[in-house]
Each structure stands twice: as C-alpha cells, then as structure tokens.
Fold each of these.
Amino acid sequence: MRNSVLLLLFFLCACPFAAFAAPSGTITELPSEKFRVSRIGHFGEPETTERFYNLWFLLKQQYDFTDGKFTSRKDNKTKSAFGNAGRFPFHGTVTEKISDRTVLCRLTGPNPLIVAIEIANAPEVGQPVAAWVMPASAEKHDGKTYPKFREMASGRDGQLQPVPAEADMQKAFISAIEAGKTFSVNVVETRKCTACYGKGTVDEKVSMRLVPNKVTCETCGGAGRRTVKVRIVLQK
C-alpha cells in the first residue's frame, strides 16, 4: 500500500488540476461518497489522480495539521468551492507577478490550478511560495478570473507557526490512510445532470409512458449541469 500511494503522489505532479466550480444558483446536497485511495489509477475506477489532487487541496483547508497529525476542524463550514474560511498551508510556485503584493501561483506540480496570492514582499517568477493563507475575493487579470488567497500569520500560544512542508503533510496522510484513518472533505462543484445525462432535455412523460417529444429537464432547468454539495470520504 505504501509503495502504491507514494507512486500516486509522484504521478500527481503530472496530472492537470481541474478547479472546482464556484457555487451559483440552487445547490443540491447529495449523500456522502467514498473515495478509495488504494484504487487510484485502476482502469475503470472513478478514483483518478486528478480527482485526488482536487480533494487534497481541499483537505489541506478543512483539516488542521499540527505536530505531524491531521485533525478535522469541528466548526468547518464550506463557504466556497475552496473550503472553509480558516487559515491553511499553501505551497506553490510563482508564475507571474501582478504587483508588489500579488502574484499568480501554480500549486506544487507542473500542471495544476493557478491561483492568485496576496503576499507581503511578493517573490519573483519561478520562486516557491509557502505561506499560511485564507480565501479572499477573486482576482481578475488579463481577462481571466483566478481564485484568490491572502497571506495570514498563524499563531499558537503566542508564537508564529512555521508553514509545514508539503512532503511532511503527504507522508502524514499516507501513514494515516495506511493505519485505517478516514478523511471527510466537503465539496461544492458543478456536475453533469444525471436525470438528462447532461443534455438539458428529457423525453416527455404522458400517462406513465415516455413519448419521443423532448422537454426541458426539470432537475437542472435545461442547463445539463447542477451545482452540488457532497461530503467525500477518503479511505484506504
């Protein structure tokens, strides 16, 4: 198990990061879903490396990491697609410097999501960023909108906490999963409507039978997609 998960974390650096969609309109709450880490990369399984990377980014926001261990934030309330409003450790690399205090950063790995970070003494392009951050308003730049986070000091017993290393967090996660621990992550995302299979229309139902006359899907209002909230349980 350890070798397979270590291999997974290596593959994460090569997979694209599909951003979670920002909540809009009606949000449908779904039953919890399981994500089995041991199945990642298996043919035909829904547990893809891309999906794991999305969940890993949210997990870092919805759990505290102290003294080498993860603890769930009991008061966590998902306010956006990027988790709760608490501080969390961010790791990435600067791809563009917008101003003296704002940079665009790519999360650790060559192709994941790019976000905006507001940080004191913004580093130059190509330099790493490790900081405690909190969600902020979106950043618009060159016609694009980026999720934005703001650097915040994190204290404990009056002392500033150093930002934990990404590698240390990954090792702790692997050890916990191997020991049978589960992690629950709240996700708000846009999914294909299961009632119309993303088409936006369904066959009309007349007198308990379907007729070949397309009507607007009532489940998604014809959009073909729905914004849903679901709790994903990561386990071995």
Amino acid sequence: MNASRTTMLAAAVLLAGCAATAQSRNMNRNTNLHGYASYSWGKANVNFKDYTAVVWECTTRGVLSPTHVDAPTNAINATRSITVTQQPALITEAPLTVLDAVVDTELEMRREDNQQRHDIIDACLVENGFHRFGLTQEQTAHLATLPHGSVERRQYLQELGANPEILRRQGI
C-alpha cells in the first residue's frame, strides 16, 4: 500500500470518528454538549465538495501531526518512570506487573496522542468557519444506519451541517 493510500485510509478512519459519535471523548474532555450524546461539524450553506475538501484538509493535518511517539519509546519511557525505591519491590513481583504498568502507560500515551490529533482537527475546522452542532436522537439513529466511511454518511452529515437552522438550533 503506498503512502498516499495509507494517508487516505487513516484520514477516512479519523473522519468517521471525528464527524459523528464522540460521546466518550467528550465525556473525558468535560465538553459541554448541551444534552446531546454526539455531535458533528457544519458550516452554513457549504456544498458537499467544499465540505469534503475542508474535512480532508483538517483530518490530514491531524493524521500527519507530529504528536505520535512510537510504542518502543513509550515502553522505555514507562520503565524509566519507575523510581529507584520502586525497583527493588518490582524484582520480587511477577513480571506481568511491570508489563501491566508499561501497557497502561502506552494506552494512556495513545489516548493523549489521539486527543492531540482531535484537537488539531477541531482547531482546523474552526479556522475554516465550521461550527459544532449536536445530533438529535433521531439524527444519531439515522446516522447509525449508514456505514462508517461511506459517501452516504458524509452526505448526510454535510446536509445537516449545511442547514443554517440546524446550526442555529443545535449549535454547541
């Protein structure tokens, strides 16, 4: 798979996650969703071509951002974070305890890395005049029937987000 195709695939995956149900991420960020369980981004009267171009640009910016630290580096950093007073105790503990600590550190770093990428994408969307809006239960239910990454799903979100009345009424 060439680099361009890999970037497109990664961007599509991030777009799918960014554009729709971000419930757990928002709860972790303590974001006020005004009662909405999920959200998307929109810009009044934006056409599908422009919507797609901006979302592609912002998602690519997030995917290619230099926030990622690879797993081996994270593992080394995790083991370095063990203090001298902890090390003797670890010798007598099961090796899985150390592995658990490394895995936990890796997962936390990946969460932080993912959060940084989403923050970059969000900032880019705002720079391009997009606004967040909440999805109603009915809109969320309909969205769930559309395959992730599909043109139909993107068109549905674009139609909602291009509607000035929806942006006004459901803006977050």
